[in-house]
Task: structure prediction
Amino acid sequence: MYIDTKTERVLAMILHLSGFLNGALPLVVPLLIWVLKKEDSFFIKEHGRAAINFQLSVIILGIGAALFIFFTIGIGAFLVAPLAIVFGLLYVYFIIMATITASNGQLYKYPISWEII
Result:
């Protein structure tokens, strides 16, 4: 599906690029935009869902990794650390690809993401 409205494209790009912010902002920014604009635009609704689901998936994976390290008394860090590096690189790559796809007016689905909302 292609979209012609530049504002919708820019908002969709912001939804994805907010993943580079710190703290709770990678989840708060797309959630606010999605709640305010989901009724006005199918394009924003779908990109918002994708960005929020991806951020929630990252948070769940991070909590799972921290619990794994905790319950293995730190030994699990030797397994989690290399995986975290790979996942960190994929995180950046997926956000960039989602932003480029949104700027082209197309929908994007993150490959590593659970459908939570």
